[in-house]
Amino acid sequence: MPTSLSPFSHTLDLSVLIPVYNEADNIQPLCEALLPALKAIGRSFEVIFINDGSTDATEARLMAVAAGERRVRVINFRRNVGQTAAMMAGIDHARGDVIVPMDGDLQNDPADIHTLITKLDEGYDVVSGWRRDRQDGFTKRVLPSMIANKLISVISGVHLNDYGCTLKAYRREMLQGFRLYGEMHRFVPIYARWQGARLAEIPVTHHPRRFGTSKYGLERIAKVVLDLVVVKFLTQYETKPIYIFGLAGLMFMGLSFLAGAYALYLKLVEGVSFIMTPLPLMVTMGIITGVMCILMGLLAELLVRVYFESQGKSHYTVRSLVNFDVPAPVDPGRVKPNPDLVA
Questions:
Q1: Which of 206, 236, 266 is at the close of a domain?
Q2: Looking at the domain assignment, is residue 321 inside a domain?
Q3: Other CB atoms within 10 A of residue 141 CB
């Protein structure tokens, strides 16, 4: 899931990304708290609001703020497409070397941005906020979040206390190489960690919601689990899909073999006819399903190679290069003549 970050020049130290949806009452107080906090850090910055198709006065409030402060930028969507897409739009347009997403509901404290950046300066690539003293309803918000955090940690092997906290700090290079879909914005620390990023988690302040209502409920758990399966596959099996399809195929064939062996045992020892049990059908279906899985794995291997080679992509990422100042020698046999220079 590749991405090309901002097409703009990277001339700023910090970009703060704030997706908002129907948060009209929160815009002005958020800016009044956020802008002084960012100025106090002493680094160049921009604030990017992504208006996710709000139907209230959110857009008008954002335009009013942007008119008085050029460092506030606004992206207005035509319709509501979700927080993850809004986050991706912010990343695509960000110009800062450090990118900090946060919520627009006043529950994140702008003063914590300085704490995150200070921790990032200690040598980390990603610093994630932890709402240790969370100010939300336990049944509808805290309990589902606890369950989701535990599931994500177990499946991913990356242990964080609070994946759902939007307030995080990323070095720009950690956001290169993937796109965000579904509810995947909370999985960026996992992807970064799997790519070798140095990850830290620190407690941040969490305030009760003052205006508006939450846009999330219990149904989020199922979405999180399904998105996590996608992330797990894309990050660990993207370049070797035969492993997962082939393993499934071998498992089906193994079950088919066991079912066949048991059917023979019943026939030869117990005298039970094949047609008296569903075992022959299980054998047939197991073999067919196993072969299909392996063939799908081989097809996926071909598609992976077409994907990478046709677009000139690589399946590795380079942290740095040393002594590569001199361009590599060019093979004369591979240089095409320029027709404009031919007499």
A1: 236
A2: no
A3: 19
Bridge partners (DSSP) of residue 101 are 17
Task: Round to the nearest angstrom and report the end-to-end CA distance of the chain.
Answer: 46
| Pick from 275, 149, 167, 172: nearest CA to 220 | 149
If you average pLDDT over residues 217-226, what whole number do you get?
Answer: 66
| Residue 87 belongs to domain spanning | 12-236
Tell me the pLDDT tens digit for each residue of 39-71.
999 999 999 999 998 889 999 999 999 998 999
Q: Are residues 113 and 246 in the same domain?
A: no
- Amino acid in position 89: A
